[in-house]
From TrEMBL:
GO biological process, one term: intracellular protein transport
UniProt keyword terms in alphabetical order: Cytoplasmic vesicle, Golgi apparatus, Membrane, Protein transport, Transport
Protein name stated in the entry: AP-1 complex subunit gamma
The keyword Protein transport is assigned to this record: yes
Lineage start: Eukaryota, Metazoa, Chordata, Craniata, Vertebrata
Amino acid sequence: MSPSVRLQEMIRVIRGARTQGEERGVIQRECAAIRAQFRQADNGTRSHNLAKLLYVHMLGYPAHFGQMECVRLIASPRYNEKRVGYLGAMMLLDEKQDASLLITNSIKNDLSHSSQYVQSLALCTLGCMGSAEMCRDLAPEIDRLLRASNSYIKKKAALCAVHIVRKVPELGELFTPASRSLLSEKNHGVLHGAVVLITELCERNPETLEQFRKAVPELVQIMKGLVMSGYSPEHNVAGISDPFLQVRILRLLRILGRNNETASDAVNDLLAQVATNTDSSKTAGSAVLYETVLTVMDIKSESGLRVLAVNILGRFLLNNDRNIRYISMTSLQKIVQTDHNAVQRHRGTIVDCLKDQDASVKRRALELSLALVSAVNIRSLMKELLLFLSSCPPELRAHTTSGIFNAAERYAPSQRWHIDTILHVLTTAGGDVRDETVPNLIQLITTATELHCYTVHKLYRALIADISVQSLVQVACWCIGEYGDLLLRGECEETEPVQVAEDDVLDALETVLQSHMSSPATRGFALTATMKLSTRITHNVDRIRSIVSIYGSCIDVELQQRAVEYNALFKKYDHMRAAVLERMPVIDKSSPGHTNGESAGGSIKEMEPTKRTQEVALPQEPANQVCDLLDLLGGSGEPPQPSPALSTTALGPVSSTAGGDLLDLLGGLDVTPVPPSVIVYEKNGVTLKLQTDRQTDTGMTITLTATNSTDREITSLTLQAAVPKSVQLQMKAPSGDVIPAHGLGQVTQTVLLNNPNKVSLKMRVRVCYTSQDFVCQDTVQIDSFPSPAW
């Protein structure tokens, strides 16, 4: 191929290349020839060579060496060279290139050129790649061209002004007067550019927005003219008169009418007219109607108009175009909270979209269906959602199960229906449910006391049928352990009675323990259920003892610890076994010990006889704040102790919990006022008092005072404190670390707290000291403070 080959010939040779290597070879030879000709003097082929280089650039090959040639061609007086030069500048240059600054003067000169086509080239280039510096330099020229008499130039200048406003927003005031006058133009291209420019100005400057609200009647008249005008070949698109301009005007009216009653009232009649007179069978009409709907929903429109907008979106749901269905459901999702009843009318169509083959449409239909669930339609809509769950794609199962659980919790018509729905979900997609599903379902079952027999029978049958769904197996094991006596009794009015033998129940639990499909958490549930059955059956206690003893040497530490503790109950504490393993009370979901999640080991610890924790019960404390305090100090070998003063005088009885979150026996006790100074720790002759003093609205100073009533001094005293994450804590240096004997002295330490969110305050204090060569370390949890406190 010769260096002087024409552009068309070069394209033909490149397309005829059989391999990538052959194509690269052709392009490298041509680029070398182009470079050589660029170095020569003006030979009349510069524009021809740059055009070929631009094609090479379009194929993805480097063409940066042609940037300076673009600058030279732009400065040329010949139009054909200037045209290729400007095209090359738009493709090869950007505002980050230094070469772009070299064309500023050429653009300024061309903006004043006598030919409208040369002016157009300069405007297009500035509007495409003009930097902030170029925009500042050339903005007055653009403002001048906006006032020109030539419609072709005004259209280009308006679009160029849009680019300048985006680059340098403070220049918007310069174009405001000219853009207002452009609305009186008859040329659709100028009108379109003016509306885009005004929209940009209004979005960036509130003062300009107020100015252009006076132009709403003028915009309404332009829009009415477009809607009611007859056929115009120049602007007609699928039977719609200039839909591009209509969409732009509607978008501007939406901005002008937002949060403004006067502008909204002026637009209401127009929107109703557009909604009723626009044909939605073609894409152009659908685009105009969709923009109309967005405008209706965004301004202060009448209620009837909003219903009309929802009905338009309902018609979109029946469209064969999936894109239109998708944007329809996206819009309905935004307005379902404010216009719930209007959207409910299209529930059947929305549910049908769950069967769509397109994954995006299916996801949107699912989200909208979940948002439409109410107490009135919970039964019928839940049937559709459960049917969808059985066949939905794997990536949607987690979202579907979560939505069904939330809807059932909010609108369940009865507890039995609620339990049946959750069990159905666990059976269908148990592997995709959230972690907190198990404790939440257990809490629901404990509150439904009249359904215990029905639930345990149903879960036992589910356990026999399939043990692969871990969440379902965990709940089933828990229920069998708690209500095994009801299962063995075989009397159930709610369901068909089934006679179950003790050996059958133990066989089922032993199968779970030995299955390779069972997770460590599931085995923990099964082992605890087996242990609890030792107080609910009469003939197989020895078999249970044998099962439990086997796991005393299990490789899983959690399971081994449980087995060892349960063996200790059989041997050393057999007289306490019946009391420890008695049926759990009804769980209050709002109690401090309850959390919506599993424990760190993935299971709910029902009992740990060797580890008992005393906590002060508070009414209705958020569970997450209690959980935040549990790990703040970390590493303590002892559980926190309650403040003696608080537990006896301030808060009454102390709740004693053994193990995990589900054994909160006395949650919800009333808190009574406490004195200004309280004793929070009293042990081994050491007394720790707490005093509070509020300094600001969110800041508080706490003083901890330690005294010693023994006949020997206490040494190496250290105090550590922890508070919830949202509270800032600063501990000052203590007055000392030795407490004199016989109460002859004291050690004080000041703690500064900042509680910007004013959350309910809790604190854990670790006390460490040496008494008679014996190191003592205790942790006390303070759940109530003397006034003043939050």
